Amino acid sequence: MVNSYAMRPTWTPLTIALMVLGFIVFWPLGLVMLAYILWGQRVPEIRRHFEGMKSEWHGAWGGCGSSRRSTSYARSGNAAFDDYREREMRRLDEERRKLDEERQEFEAFVQNLRRARDQEEFDRFMRDRNGKPRPNSDTIDL
Fold first, then answer.
1. How large a percentage of the chain has pLDDT more than 70?
2. Rounded to whole angstroms, how far apart are CA atoms 51 and 6?
3. Which of 30, 74, 76, 90 is the 20 to 30 A CA-CA neighbour of 2?
4. SS3 112
5. Among residues 12, 56, 54, 57, which one has the least CA distance to residue 37?
């Protein structure tokens, strides 16, 4: 069982030793350990703050980079702008879908090219192999 009490964000012998070792090995590691010692107890509230910002970002823009896109967006209060944004987002989603389909088709095409090239190389190898007479097992090459 690991003693997590020794690795708390305060001035303990373990944290001081890790900080000094961090400065010796690679100075940014020492700075990270120093920051953990000084501000480590605030990590949960910082994490809650950034998670709140992340949920606002995903709610307002539908994730923007996520594979699962949401069709509902936060309303701005301006009906004309909201309608325009919804039309544009639908158009962009459709373009993204078309690009994904084209990418899949291209990947299948490249896969078929590779397969055909590999088959051609294998057929050439088999022709060359079957065309050459095999050396007699009684002869020894020196």
1. 63
2. 28
3. 30
4. helix
5. 12
Q: Which amino acid is at 81?
A: F
Q: Looking up tokens 């890790």, which residue turns up? A: 18
- 108-112 contacts, C-beta under 8 A, 24 or more apart: none
86-117 pLDDT, tens digit each: 999 999 999 999 999 999 999 999 999 999 99
Both tokens assigned to 49: 């703050």
Q: Which among 66, 113, 71, 75 is positioned nearest to 89, based on CA atoms?
A: 71
Handedness of CA 27, 30, 34, 35 (dihedral sign): positive
Structure tokens at 89: 């987002």
Q: Which two tokens stand for residue 73?
A: 């967006």
